[in-house]
Amino acid sequence: MRGFGVYSIGNVGWIEKEAPACGPLDAIVRPTILAPCSSDCHIAHGASGAYKNRILGHESVGIVVEVGAMVKNFKPGDYVVVPCSTPDWLKPNVQNFISNAHDETPMSSFKFVFKKDGVFAERYHVNLADANLVLLPEGVSPEAALMTVDMMSTGFHGVELANIGFGDTVVVIGIGPVGLMAVAGAALSGAGRIIAVGTRVNCVKAAYAYGATDVISYKDGDIAEQVRERTKGGADRVIIAGGNHETFTQAVAMTREMGTIANVNFFDAHETIQLPVVLWGLGMANKDIRGGFCPGGAKRIEKLLNLIAAGRIDPTKIISHTFNGFNTIPEAYALMDSKSPDLIKPIVVCSDLT
């Protein structure tokens, strides 16, 4: 089997491997459509450790090739949507109502790449198929479904963490694909004013289309000061969907008392967050700071697909580039890695894979 992955830090390419084996509760899937993510690039560059000969990718829609003897809900030939997070639902953390993103240890439900080979392969493995796969519903395109598995799920998780209420003033820092889905989710949740922070022309246009009322740029000065000035004191909720450790400090600074900072951004393992206590009212400002990896499993993705089917959201607006053919994965990855000025989200249609 062939897959595209990282064979040493900073070096990516095609890797030959044995096809994955199917356990009794699992499934083997052939991808029909894929998407590279900035997380794939971070992993390849060593931000999450030194991976060797590991196939990348965690965003896919595909066709079931094989199911285990104990799988009840799926069969070969089914068209399925595959969440980026596939929890082991038998682990105690899930049973204790800890977020299913952390079924055993922090983010351990994120099996693809971190625990095993990812989806940029001719075949890939899905654990606990009955709980982690979703049939592609009628009326939802594969392209739209693909956006639910990570971009929409993660962006909406930022909204969930922020606990947005009707009329709240919300800031979304970073309007890449995850941030844009956070903008859309904030609008669906009843936010009043939605201030997006970003500079790319395509992303700014999409932010307004998804419900942003204002867009500010770091090029025009400190973003925290801009938010405080525009809101006369600060935002009720701030979602961090991009940036670095300094962005975190700015997020706290732009949040008013009794507000919430919600983070869905991956920080580099080498970064250190330093927070001047005055920004937190000497610890007395009742600013909640929350962060987490998006939940996984079939039920969550089913709900997101329902939003698309009902016409409540069109996540395909974030797709900026389409590549045709499994063999074009390196091109799509390179585009994601280079952060082209016109980039939002690239996808790969595996028209040449059978």
General description of the model:
This protein has 354 residues and is of the alpha/beta class. It is 28% helix and 23% strand. The two termini are 12 Å apart. It has helices at 38-44, 92-95, 129-132, 142-162, 177-188, 201-210, 223-231, 245-253, 298-309, 329-338; strands spanning 2-8, 11-16, 27-34, 54-55, 60-67, 79-82, 124-126, 134-135, 170-173, 194-197, 214-216, 235-240, 255-263, 288-291, 319-324, 345-349. The chain has 10 helices and 16 strands. The protein has 2 domains: 2-136 and 314-349, Alpha-Beta Complex (Quinone Oxidoreductase, Chain A, domain 1), CATH 3.90.180.10; 155-291, Rossmann fold, CATH 3.40.50. The relative contact order is 0.16. Helix 4 crosses helix 5 (177-188), helix 4 crosses helix 9 and helix 5 (177-188) packs parallel to helix 6 (201-210).
Q: What is the CATH superfamily of the largest domain?
A: Medium-chain alcohol dehydrogenases, catalytic domain
Radius of gyration: 20 Å
The string of secondary-structure elements, in order, is EEEHEEEHEHEHEHEHEHEHEEHEHE
SS class: alpha/beta
CATH class of the largest domain: Alpha Beta
The coarse silhouette is globular
Q: Note the total helix count.
A: 10
Q: What is the level-2 CATH architecture name of the largest domain?
A: Alpha-Beta Complex
Largest sheet data: 7 strands, mixed
Average pLDDT for all residues: 94
**Strand residue percentage:** 15-25%
Count of domains = 2
CATH topology of the largest domain: Quinone Oxidoreductase, Chain A, domain 1
Low-confidence stretches: none
Number of E-state strands: 16
Range of helix content? 25-40%
Head-to-tail CA distance between termini: 12 Å
